[in-house]
Amino acid sequence: MLKFDEMWKELPAAGQAQWQSQSQGGQSQFQSQGVRDHYRSYAQWLARQPDDTMRKRREEAEMIFRRVGITFAVYGAKDEDGAGTERLIPFDLIPRIIPAAEWAILEKGLVQRVNVLNRFLHDVYHDQEIIKAGIIPADQILGNAQFRKEMMGVYVPHRVYSHIAGVDIVRAANAKGEGEYYVLEDNLRVPSGVSYMLEDRKMMMRLFPDLFSSHRVAPVAHYPDLLLETLRASAQPGAADPTVVVLTPGMYNSAYFEHAFLAQQMGIELVEGQDLFVKDRFVYMRTTRGPKRVDVIYRRVDDDFLDPSVFRKTSTLGCAGLVDAYSAGNVSICNAIGTGVADDKSIYPYVPQMIEFYLGEKPILKNVPTYMCRNPDDLKYTLANLKELVVKEVHGAGGYGMLVGPAATKQEIEDFRKAVQANPNGYIAQPTLSLSSCPTFVESGIAPRHIDLRPFVLSGKDVQMVPGGLTRVALKDGSLVVNSSQGGGTKDTWILEV
Predict the structure, then answer these.
(1) What is the CATH number that goes with domain 100-194+218-359?
(2) Burial, 383: exposed, middle or buried (Cβ in 10 Å; 0-12, 13-18, 19+)?
(3) How many CA atoms lie within 13 A of 366 on its CB side?
(4) Which InterPro entries match (predicted)?
């Protein structure tokens, strides 16, 4: 028997509702005391479902996802013939549910945060008032690998640099033992995962249509419309009917499915670097009818590969002359070049101070407490408590370059100790949070697994988002790493309408 609050840690530990995974007559036994109101109806429905039915639904989902091609490439992984491998991102049948009142707070906090990060980016590439005020040390910005001097003084419409932001949110116990949302990470360069949010919802509606007639779940299907509206709004002045394209590194990129999916959903062209060229400081794409001018590029290519005449000389993924056309105000790039300086993990600890500096407000969403190993006292504490902390490389991503102390071996801890000592500036540390968990349908039945949430925030003339986001789930028992590259899966996210 599992305590229900252990499994549904989205809920405070009120009452002793329990889940019994073994069945009697095919029905899982469920006791409803202690379940938060917004989960109650779904939990009662789930208790009536035979395990065999849920397994068949999962097999059906896997078959459809594979047939449609909803896969991601795994870098470094090879099949028996030595070729690169593609995998399905595991999809869990049990949704993550958030009530309208909680979402309203999250939405307000996300708008505040993304607005201030765009203010920060405009500032660092123009007047640098935050440096002059001594809020952030100059070397942490100007010496950051993601700072692009080529962006100094460049005009961007509406002063928006990060048009598409994916902010990673976790729910954990605060000092009072109550559940509270925290920002774990800001993703402002080329955030991915929104296609899985959309496909997970389509799959749930296909498999369980009755649930959507009995629950008021806010829709997400209009995201591509909002995205296209945002991209068109980012065009430079004078582009009356802007031509928008999605720039992909190509079919071998791990997120290629998403690039193709979003282009198709928006009804715009998917292009690679070789499809573009620059002439007289304007960008054109090659078409069967001749060159066509491009006004907005939704790029899914990292800065280093965008323009071989400015950044990495050997890159074949971008387009020579792109930065010159951008600087001249003849094309918009979404997200802007140089946005990475704002989502670097060494800058993350300063976001609450940014909110007060630029907006004169208190942060609505809190950061996770963070130790900056560049500071001697923080370094000393981190090295003394490695087995209890999560330590991250400031430039790391995808769950790589990270130590989860409580789950690490002695050797892994010692290896990380040496790495941190050799380069303290390259690491931050955070306490190991008691992340919320949600019932998840795994091989052994229904069991608790840790989750996070990535809402997608769109910034154009206005800031918009669909209600929800991508819930990622750590499928390994006890794991806190939800990234797909590390064995994580996804869930549909339900925001219940009032």
Answers:
(1) 3.40.50.11290
(2) middle
(3) 13
(4) ATP-dep_Glu-Cys_Ligase-2, CP_ATPgrasp_2, UCP005522
